[in-house]
Amino acid sequence: MKFLERRRGLVENRLEAVLDEVEPTELSEELEHVALSGGKRVRPLVTILACEAADGDAEDAVDFGVGIELVHNASLVIDDVIDQSEMRRGVESAWTAHGFGPAIIASDGLLGEAFELFSDEPRAMQAATESMIELGEGEATELVAQPTNEAEYMQLARRKTGALFRAAAELGAIAADADPFTVEAFGEYAERMGVAFQIRDDVLDATADAEKLGKPTNQDAEMERPSVVQVTELTPDEANALARKEADRAIDALERTGTADTDPGEYLRDLAEFVVVREH
């Protein structure tokens, strides 16, 4: 675990430094409330691991990893506003703590800081921008054109969850100056892993014990969100099998990078294995 903790530490230190430089102070405090309130930092870790697997240095990928984490946090602020969720990661959500207007400004601020970190590399800007377009289309779909079958659900999961994971891995490969084929393979790995993550998340929300899960359950049904359980006719076991299939495809894509046998590649493989069996 020291291997991952060191890399997580790189992300945390840079994240704190970026937010500390934000002006005015009031905005900096709002951004810190969102971005420093916890989180597993899975996406920036994917960025760093992809970079190292592609024979780059972890330090070269930190800014891109922090950038994708800021994009992710900006999207969570908007999710909480839409759902009127009062808590996030065990603390007050941004709109609860500061109000709707400041929360939206905080989301904009997070995106601004993120794209500043991408701005020196055109390929990074393209990867991040494409993920934002997909994410925005996913958010809109969830609100006004909810899926009604498995194929439409998978498209939504790809946009809402898979797209940012794809960008995270692509950014790591770009930081390592990998060739386009390798960048694409890392992107497919992460996108499919992200979709598997979302499917498993939906199943846990519908079936897990709230105390074991560490957060309220049945939220998708109560909020009328289109989870795999709500939209398809799949049983939880069948949905888990679908997640497993996506994870297997993610590992196949990772194999195409030619890096799966490296230490970072092993961690990426383990992550794809873990997302479909996690209990929280």
UniProtKB/TrEMBL annotation:
<comment type="similarity">
    <text>Belongs to the FPP/GGPP synthase family.</text>
</comment>
<protein>
    <submittedName>
        <fullName>Geranylgeranyl pyrophosphate synthase</fullName>
    </submittedName>
</protein>
<keyword id="KW-0808">Transferase</keyword>
<dbReference type="InterPro" id="IPR000092">
    <property type="entry name" value="Polyprenyl_synt"/>
</dbReference>
<keyword id="KW-0460">Magnesium</keyword>
<keyword id="KW-0479">Metal-binding</keyword>
<dbReference type="Pfam" id="PF00348">
    <property type="entry name" value="polyprenyl_synt"/>
</dbReference>
<dbReference type="InterPro" id="IPR008949">
    <property type="entry name" value="Isoprenoid_synthase_dom_sf"/>
</dbReference>
<dbReference type="InterPro" id="IPR033749">
    <property type="entry name" value="Polyprenyl_synt_CS"/>
</dbReference>
<dbReference type="GO" id="GO:0004659">
    <property type="term" value="F:prenyltransferase activity"/>
</dbReference>
<dbReference type="GO" id="GO:0008299">
    <property type="term" value="P:isoprenoid biosynthetic process"/>
</dbReference>
<dbReference type="GO" id="GO:0046872">
    <property type="term" value="F:metal ion binding"/>
</dbReference>
